[in-house]
Amino acid sequence: MKVVAIVTLLPGLTASFTNTLLPLHQLSFAKKVDHVKMTTSELSATTTPTLEAILFDCDGVLADTERDGHRLAFNRAFTENSLSTTWSVPLYGKLVEVGGGKERMTAYWNDVGWPESMLSDSDEERQKKVKALHLRKTDIFMDLIDEGAIPLRSGILRIVDEAIAAGVQLAVCSTSNEKAVENLVRRLMGEERLGKFKIFAGDMVKKKKPAPDVYNMAVDDMGLDKSRCVIVEDTEIGLGAARAAGIRCIVTKSSYTGDEDFTGADMVVEELGDDTDTAVTLETLTGLLKQPV
User: Fold this and answer.
1) CB crowding 74-102: b at 16 or more within 10 Å, else e
2) Is 143 among the residues known to form the active site?
3) Active-site annotation holder among 34, 59, 111, 139
4) What pLDDT digit, counting tens, does each position of 45-77 carry?
């Protein structure tokens, strides 16, 4: 009696046969495949990215701080130091295009002329005074936060709590002073929520936004996968930093940035919001991960 064997090969496997039919146990396979079981969640993970971290800018994102926070603090610091400089609301709207407070003062005075008390100073002496002014401005800004003069933007507390509950990591990546950022989060969100944030701010990096350095630092320090992160920004400069870092970005427009060019953003909204029908949620942010960077 002849026995005919029908062998169905798995993809990627080859079998060698001679003209003489061999017992199955003598067939020579070029490759072994271990039996692999995949859970439903593992199968889902191969098609749907999971959100690992949200990286927030601070000013204009967590709170609309520029016009009625930083601007007022700068002006008070100027007055205390008998400087004739006053930054109006429209003027400051242009000045925020320069990232970083010390850089902002330097760029402004390089353009319009340095105050009389600094005219004869060397560049090094001027930068020492600019640094001292910025430290005083930061103290005044923190006083404004403590006074409750600067509220959180709509939707921030909600999405932070959603992220904490889901185990999504949180960071603030800002050109502002580290102490000011930390104090803002503590005063407006509470000590417990502050403990869930990593803060990358101020002079931790030499190159400010639109350079990607602060976001790259956060990714490296926190051990993140860029393809599973979303940045929340409010300015064209911040969007540029996000794009340069190769990370997806949602823009929440702020008081000074409504007319800026947000071409290249993955999503642009007026605010994260608290309305159940229109709010930006963790699901919304996770959906952005499917889009090409």
Assistant:
1) bbbbbeeeebebebeeeebbebbebbbbb
2) no
3) 59
4) 456 689 999 999 999 999 999 998 999 999 999
